[in-house]
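Structure (tokenized):
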């Protein structure tokens, strides 16, 4: 398997880029690096580029990050924590001498035999073909999103063209979906529009690179921050979520969801009406229902089960639905008890996403008053992980959750005279 330095060198050579050209393109896109740094990456003298730099290099060279870091199998199938650590070891071996690499390969072979694992599969370092032109739906979705971002930045077409250089991009044609800009041009536009959040940039760039089809959350009526959270949710293999006011949206019935949106306000989902916001909640549930491989680990405060935001019959149906969810193999539902809780974090509701790609770290999302805040700082994400871990060991078990839900269902049934 070729290492990162070898693959970067191959991609630069095959795509016809010099280190200076790549450094200039990334710097103009808002990711300042030098020609010397590209050269050090290319020769293996630098071996730990940030994820942002990796993504920018992959975007410029029209390859996937998985191919670039030397794992041809990252793009398909689930990858667990052990594979993440294995991929990290492989990347850190970049720059070792041939004799050291031979020793490392021998140790890996012995370890695989000792654990009864098959021989390591053969992989190819052959560079993939450059991405083809975007199809019509992709071009139009990308154009509408860039149009919305430009308007939000309060910039005219002329101001944008001046900022990135006259003739660098035909803004009207891009926004109308008539032409597809190069991914590196989209990088530059995002920088001009003040988009600094890595997840939001990656959400737009994944469409620009043709890595995904246009999706329901690409609609211009959905704010870019919310579309990004939905895109992350769709790619996650594990969703951890903690809620203190309402049942988690992924587990809500339609009638309960309508009441929860009305109580919080549709503006929290960037919409003008309850019906428009409700449509987003239902679309999220439908999308996740199609992928049984996604695991949802939800922790709710017991007050959620007692809070009345709808009529008794709707509340009863919501409790029955939670019981159904609690018995599903890919849902782990737990309750923070009202009496003597062992731990309650000083935070509002939040969600953590874990992804299949070994090179991609977890992302946290703090659900605020007017919108969601995506958290990518390693230390901050770890703090959310620690909070969720403390919650998980002090809440009800799966069996106890069913008992608690049944208790509240019987309480409400008696109140309704059933």
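Design, position by position:
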């Amino acid at each position: 398997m070729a290492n990162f330095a070898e693959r970067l060198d191959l991609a630069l050579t095959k795509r016809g880029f010099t280190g200076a050209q790549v450094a200039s393109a990334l710097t103009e896109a808002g990711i300042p690096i030098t020609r010397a740094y590209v050269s050090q990456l290319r020769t293996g003298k630098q071996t730990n580029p940030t994820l942002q730099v990796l993504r920018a290099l992959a975007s410029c060279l029209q390859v996937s990050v998985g191919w670039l870091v030397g794992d041809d199998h990252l793009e398909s199938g689930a990858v667990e924590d052990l594979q993440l650590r294995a991929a990290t070891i492989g990347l850190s071996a970049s720059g070792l001498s041939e004799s050291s690499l031979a020793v490392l390969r021998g140790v890996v072979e012995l370890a695989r035999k000792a654990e009864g694992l098959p021989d390591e599969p053969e992989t190819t370092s052959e560079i993939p073909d450059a991405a083809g032109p975007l199809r019509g739906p992709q071009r139009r979705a990308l154009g509408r999103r860039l149009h919305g971002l430009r308007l939000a930045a309060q910039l005219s077409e002329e101001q944008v063209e001046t900022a990135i250089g006259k003739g660098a991009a035909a803004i009207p044609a891009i926004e109308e979906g008539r032409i597809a800009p190069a991914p590196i041009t989209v990088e530059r536009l995002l920088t001009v529009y003040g988009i600094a959040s890595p997840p939001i940039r990656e959400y737009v760039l994944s469409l620009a690179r043709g890595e995904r089809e246009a999706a329901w959350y690409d609609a211009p009526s959905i704010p870019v921050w919310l579309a990004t959270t939905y895109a992350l949710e769709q790619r996650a293999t594990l969703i951890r979520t903690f809620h203190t006011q309402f049942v988690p949206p992924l587990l809500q019935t339609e009638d309960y969801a309508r009441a929860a949106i009305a109580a919080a306000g549709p503006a929290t989902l960037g919409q003008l009406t309850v019906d428009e916001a409700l449509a987003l909640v239902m679309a999220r549930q439908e999308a996740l229902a199609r992928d049984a491989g996604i695991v949802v680990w939800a922790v709710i405060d017991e007050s959620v089960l007692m809070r009345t935001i709808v009529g008794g019959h709707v509340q009863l149906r919501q409790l029955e639905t939670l019981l159904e969810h609690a018995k599903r193999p890919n849902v782990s539902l737990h309750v923070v008890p009202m009496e003597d809780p062992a731990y309650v974090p000083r935070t509002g509701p939040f969600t953590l996403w874990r992804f299949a790609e070994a090179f991609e770290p977890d992302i946290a999302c703090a659900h605020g008053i007017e919108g969601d805040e995506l958290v990518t700082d390693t230390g901050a994400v770890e703090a959310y992980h620690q909070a969720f871990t403390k919650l998980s060991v002090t809440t009800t078990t799966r069996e106890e959750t069913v008992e608690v839900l049944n208790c509240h269902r019987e309480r409400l049934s008696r109140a309704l005279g059933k």
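Reviewer-requested clarification: The chain is about 55% helix and 10% strand. The CA atoms of residues 78 and 172 lie 40 Å apart.
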